[in-house]
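Collaborator request, handled under Task 6.
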Amino acid sequence: MRKQTFAALASLLMLGSNIPLQAQLPPSDILNEDRTTIRLLEGDNPDPSIIRYGNKYYMIHSSFVYTPGLVVYESDNLVDWHPCSIALPEYNGEIWAPDLCVYKDRFYIYLPTRDAQKKKTNMVIWADSPEGPWSKPVDLKIGEIDPEHVTDADGKRYLLLSSGTLHPLSEDGTRITGDPIHIYDEWPIPEEWDIEGVSLEGINIKKVGEYYYLFAAEGGTAGPPTSHMVVQARSKSIMGPWENAPENPLLRTRSRQEKWWSKGHGSIVDTPDGRLFMLFHAYENGFQTLGRQTLIRELVLGEDGWLHLKEGGISLPAPQRLKETRMNDLVWQTYQEHAITDRFSFFPEEDKILIKGKGNNPQEGSPLLARTSAHRYEVEACFELKSPDASAGLVAYYNEDYHFGFGFNREQILRYRRGQVSRSKSLYPEANKQGKLWLKMRNDEHVLSAWYSADGKEWHKYPWAFEISGAHHNILYGFLFVRPAIYAGGGEVEVTHFVLRNLDEMD
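Structure tokens returned to the collaborator:
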């Protein structure tokens, strides 16, 4: 028996070189992604599109069903970002993988959208400054997804879509003027790789030296950890022919041991001193509930004429992280509301939010959504019910069907779960009757618990808790993420003393 065991082990060792790459341990540089890769912003920010204008950088992302949509971020150093405008203040359907570009000093956003009937189209908005104001959307009356604005050597404008087809644009960029021209087919993915699907999308073109470099996302944006990727091709004309890189893919998660899963959808930017960087998105291993986060890696142009991921540490500083986020630090959003101003009023000087309640639970009333990328965080606020039938609470919100949280009305404390409301006796009956309680909710690596207080000093724990690690796109679909949120229903509610604590930064 022992001889047979040793023989079996020897056979496995000899076969090791034939094990597929994705099953092998990745190189040490990949396992140490904290040296090569920086996470930007907070929360789910998928499908980044970035430009440099002078010495400043501007970036947008998919906003899907959140309102307001298309937040334009600005940065001086590529790592510290702040919002400079809102391009879509009103709900305009689901927004997938938009493209931010500048042409003759005018800024454009090309955005694919789906209406309530799931019909796809592409629209365009524009502004004379990234700070806005932005125009109303104009429908280009063309389907597909992931538009990319490109110009040829003569400055003629085109819209490149996910099928690899170029669509001629008018000089002002607001109309399709001709038939599509097919320029690129997907890079052939090896059959043995675990992917979500071929899914050619997110095509991005950057001219470096004598070549145009094309970067395309393939493999599906979620699914297995090894699914998504960025492939590279080059040509001396945007019309092709395009030569695929011999070492494709340029970027891919090769092992489930890596920190970042399903890496893909690259957008390329250069710096004034000539460095090149690729922004992309990925899920964090073990924290898919946080959605697809924006990451950045450095690129170098090799002697072989191809772009490669820079080895070793990235030449950028670490971004600053807030330990505590207050009301005025956030870009607040709602879920499929027409406009955030319809129900929510903000009073920055008074540290106050006034909410017109909607529905009788978070399923019926779109909450006010914050964002974080912390593995461990707390949300705390003081709630005052201004109407007899009002209720309010703190929620971890994925969508109208999947949400988990804690609240109160004038009679009881409440638990919210998937449209259901459970009730229990309050240990502060007088405070409940007066309609004023402090609430605190903690997400400790997917375990939700909460406390309530009459004065914000002495706290009692709710008799319920949740485990929510399965609340992510691979299980629930929708390309969303779990967000800390404020819910109000049944009447008007005043919220003060809001704070979101990043417990990861406080250890």
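The cover message to the collaborator said: "The CA atoms of residues 2 and 8 lie 10 Å apart. The two ends are 51 Å apart (CA to CA). Please let us know whether this matches your experimental observations."
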